[in-house]
Protein: UPF0260 protein SAMN05444002_2738
Amino acid sequence: MRPRFWERPLDDLTPQEWEALCDGCGKCCLNKLEDEDTGQVEFTRIACRLFDDSTCRCSNYAIRLKIVPECVVLKPETMDKTAYFMPLSCAYRLRHEGKPLPDWHPLVTGDPESTAKAGRAVRGPTWPEFSVPEDDWEDYIAAEEDL
Structure:
């Protein structure tokens, strides 16, 4: 990968560089509720069925869309429509908004565990999505900074 590739425009990244932007926080794997009137997105503590809480990553990333067709796929050309659904600290969202990566990001620190060490990875209890009726998801809303 090119030096400091993450500072380049998103549409200039190679597929490998694009994937490397992920900080491994796991917040994108949490189910969210969107207010139809305001567009406000709330994170819940209800995790996708593929979320591995020991790694904060998708347990079946390569074929996730076959298992979870509603999974949000981030691509440079779709960021205008999908970035709002990502955590405020998400590298894809930050770079889409023209902002730098945070100092705790693994690409900045060189440490793949720096997201967790900085307290930015999903922590605390999560529930598998099929264990909670969708009508009850509002009871599991969590502030992003508390995840």
Notes: The radius of gyration is 15 Å. The first strand starts at residue 30 and ends at 34.
